[in-house]
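Researcher: Go.
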Amino acid sequence: MEISLSMRGQIESLRLKYGRVTASHAFATLYIWREDMGLSVCLEDHLYAVKCRWRGENAWFFPCGKREAACRFIREQMKMSGLRLCYMEEADVELLEKEFPGAFRISEAEGDHEYLYDCAEQRALVGKRFAAIRNHIRRAEADHVLECEPLNRENLAEAMKVNRQWESRSSGQSDRSAPTDRPGGTPPESMAPANLREGMLEDGAASETLLREWDALGSFGVLIRVDGEPHAVAAGYPLGMDTYDLCLAKQRFALPGLGAYTKHAFFCALPESVTCVNAEEDLGIEGLRRMKRQMRPSRLLKMYEAVSTLG
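Model: Structure:
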């Protein structure tokens, strides 16, 4: 079935009931990426499974739901060739090894690991570990007059303009995986691109959808004005009572330190009850991986992939 906004309540209820707080399985993630990743969903009373044509004709996110329903779904898909299960957690690996011994070749999917950040650490930025981030922020504050405001209906149009200007700028680059936000080849502070072009994902369309369906997706974010003009945006959505996703962080064009300032502003603007931010995976893109690591994650949520050995 096509993924629609009307499914949000049912999918999120199943996701939280069965303890899957990953960004990969969240409804908002599925909805904004449905076109670029070729996503559709099998939705039942006790399960949902997401088909991902970007990964293959019989590729699925690991089904989320009741254990018996998940096993039944996997057995049905194994009847067809080339079954691939992705965005699997360690508990999913254990299920496959117990219920389907020898039926899958399982491997760690490093590019799918999700980066988790401690909100208290990111707000305070205390210690040597965060010295580089503090320096980036001070540089931005010294060079420009910066203002942060919450994203809402009044300024969403400005955020969309920032996103489109970023997309227009980045679409003209020949190497989509190279860091481009700072001169001299140093790693970028702003969020790197991620859409499907010649086998790579870029997130221009996904970001546009997030902003367009702002209220329907329960989104949250900040807009940064530089010398009075809208210049950067950071946004995401809740994954649980104490966890938020950060899927969008862009600026019209690169300014030293502004990426670090924008993400820090996002962390500081979140409700006090939020203790963790999930900045999603790095897609195996080296520039994006360096940027996410430089943000000093508290840990990685490891992901795995399984390919059927039966045909």
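Model: The chain is about 35% helix and 25% strand.
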